[in-house]
What we know:
13 strands, about 15% helix, four-stranded mixed sheet, elongated, about 35% strand
Amino acid sequence: xTIIYRSEKGAPLTASEIDGNFRxxxxxxxxxxDHAEAGEGIGKIRVEGDEISFLGTFGxxxxxxxxxxxSLNFCGPWAAQTPYKKLDLATVDKALYCCLMDHVSGxxxxxxxxxxxxxxxxxxxxxxxxxxxxxxxxETESLGKLALLLEDDSxxxxxxxxxxxxxxxxxxxx
Length: 174
C-alpha cells in the first residue's frame, strides 16, 4: 500500500486512510528492524611474517601492510668518541641503554638526553651463610634464612621456614 497525503488527495483523509498510513509505516519499520544491514567491520586480522592483513566481515580485503621493524644494534660497552646511531644498544655499569639519536659520543656524564635506560642487572646479595651444629641451631630466625648444618660426616644446606629449620633439598624438618 502507498501512503496517502492530504495535499495530493485535495481533501481530508478518512479514518481508514489514516489507519492505512500508520499500518504502512509500521510494516516498513518492522521490515527494517528484522533485516537491519550493518556496515562492514573488521572480520579477521591475519599476521604472516612481517605482513598484516585486514579482512572485512563481508569478505572485503582491506589490504595488507608491511609491519615496521626496529633495527636494534648491540654495540657492547659504551665508549667515548664513538659514532652511535638511533636504536644502538650499549652497556654502562651493568645497565643497558638505547641510543635516541645519531651522534658521536663525548663524555658519558654529558650524554643523558641522548640515551634511554632500558634495564639494569640486579646486584647480587652479599654472600654470608651461617654455620651451625645441630645442637647450636637457634630456635627462631628470620623467615627464609639460609644456613649450613655441619654434621658428623657431611654438611647440609638448611633454611628457617618461619617455625622450624628444615633441609633445603629434601624438605624434611630437623
